[in-house]
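Suppose a colleague, Dr. K., hands you the sequence of a protein chain of 475 amino acids and asks what its three-dimensional shape might be. Before reaching for any lab equipment, you can write down a predicted structure in token form. Begin with the sequence itself:
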Amino acid sequence: MKEAMLYEKLGDGRVKCGVCPHHCVIAEGKRGICAVRENREGTLYALNYGKAIAVAIDPIEKKPLNYFLPGTTAYSFATIGCNLRCLWCQNWAISQASKPNRLIYGEDISPDEHVRRALAAGCPSIAYTYTEPIIFVEYALDTMKLAREAGLKNIWKTAGYATKETLDTIIRFHESGVHLEIATLIVPGVNDRIDQLERMARFIAEEVGKEVPWHVNRFFPGWKMMDTAITPMETFETAAALGKKSDCCTCTSATSEKEGSLMLVFGVISPHPPLIIPEIGGKDIERVKRTVAALEMAAERLAAAKPDRLLLISPHEGHGFEVPMHYLDRQLPPNLETEKILVTVPSYEHYYEWAKRYGEAYDRSDLRTAIIASSDLSHVLKPEGPYGYHSAGPLFDKLVVKAIKEKDAGQLLRLDAGFLERAAECGLRSILFLMGAFEGRAYEAEVLSYEGPFGIGYLVATFMPSESEEQIKDA
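The predicted structure, expressed as tokens, is then:
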């Protein structure tokens, strides 16, 4: 938490936020529309400062940027929250997670730690993305200053909240030498009329600059617009043609509908204890040899699925991501597009429902996606274990294995909160995310191994879509 930038004290306990054009007037104890800026005793605070909810290393073209550091990767991060509420948002589970007045969660990562990680990963840039960076401007700005000192470039991916002032700012940025690329998502029934597309193209060409790249992107169903059709190819092609007619530097990002195919091609549950890495576990590695063998088998299956993209889900930063990947990425191509999501919201159902929408969206994408659910099970399996013993522990692990084999997430969603606390579970949210993503489709779930030699349950299981077996072979 940090005192917010750009606000005015009104003298009666209220404050007026100036970070975006909403100009929220916020009473004592209340928050603004973004629900991450709160008035506490007449001082406005950014509650999301230092709390990263998503961290990943992306190809820079994903931003999308086609003419800035092409072929490189961008260290990318976000906090929860947004000052908009777009019904088609693909990242709604984190952009809307703070509303209304919910817990502000995320991994504590300082600005200098972000810079250190970017440098360690060999990324020449840091991107502020995934949600709306204007609502974590304090956090982003502190990071940007350190990044610049370290020789890194900064990428600001924003919706812009296009008031006249915002559009004038875009023009000033471009005129001052800041690299600018503009992206428009063409959403059926929202901005797909020919006159709308003509105005967009004309504005960019005449007011911003013909040399500014204009990315025209197709809409795929998301959040509250799951029943809306994908942008027809003819509309997409019309938008691209209008851009070229206006002499815009038009970039198209079409993805095919892949009729009849499932682009969620693989899922795996992996434990994350550092001791399963030989250099750390030493002689103890013999006690988890079934887990290691299962992870090696899972790595072979993952490679056979030929994913274009990995989605890593974990309750922990650091080892929660790194330990599974020690085994699972051995046979994958380098620089595979990877996104990391921390699962820290208390609600288990939240991630299950969110993942169902992820799965539906992936089926309409041209990216073959694999999900890695990082998860240890109960921590109270043995009296001699680090957390002792409770009878709820072994029972919980049996229930998880049973639910996976029967492909029935409902068995886990119905578990009592008190029971889960006594079982000292770690990672059920990751498992439910994976099961939610595969909900409603034909797939094979196989438990490759389960053991708990140190008093903590380690499970390895794979999920493979039945319909895509031949596609995987032919891909």
